Prior knowledge:
Elements: H1 2-17, H2 20-36, H3 40-56, H4 60-77, H5 80-96, H6 100-114, H7 121-136, H8 140-147, H9 162-176, H10 179-194, H11 200-216, H12 220-235, H13 242-259
Helix pairs in contact: 1-2, 1-3, 2-3, 3-4, 4-5, 5-6, 5-7, 6-7, 7-8, 7-9, 8-9, 9-10, 10-11, 11-12, 11-13, 12-13
Amino acid sequence: xxxxxxxxxxxxxxxxxxxxxxxxxxxxxxxxxxxxxxxxxxxxxxxxxxxxxxxxxxxxxxxxxxxxxxxxxxxxxxxxxxxxxxxxxxxxxxxxxxxxxxxxxxxxxxxxxxxxxxxxxxxxxxxxxxxxxxxxxxxxxxxxxxxxxxxxxxxxxxxxxxxxxxxxxxxxxxxxxxxxxxxxxxxxxxxxxxxxxxxxxxxxxxxxxxxxxxxxxxxxxxxxxxxxxxxxxxxxxxxxxxxxxxxxxxxxxxxxxxxx
Length: 260
């Protein structure tokens, strides 16, 4: 049905622009119309995309519910290829709600199947999420091993995963705890915070983490400057970037306390 496709196309455009709430409304309209007309494939797509919108807005319970529904529908239709996309998005949500081991178990087979040499955006993003999971589990060496093969992509401005790689690489290096690794991590965060190709969410998240790191070093002025850039980036992120909003609020509170 043309109306369903129009809703889905509009949702995709809104989501890419960062207006996640408006995108969710478009996908909800698509889901309602697809169900009305009995369009099973469109129901799956709209349900999955609605889950992604909820995840981006940190509505994790709703996101998991939609992913479960999309997975059940895809399994009934034999849409095996969609399972990978669902697994990656579901693992990201599980990581954020503390189900790190579950998320890692979901991602490990995907990373192994792709191989260490895989550098397509989807494979790299999956590897980054697994590295973040390993870091959350305190497995620093495993996280280093996962991010190292793709870390150079953080310096490739035209790469769609440059910001994502830079953020995870910075986290891993900070966890390593050496002065040299910390220096590289701060440079990475500075790079992502000001990278034109990075998304507003990535820029804001990098700025918030950079502010926290600067504050840990006793550099209140540097922390305030990073916060200013992060706040500006967040203003361009429309209704999404829930993770960045929380990180920025935490960093702003710490800087305010340090400033007296």
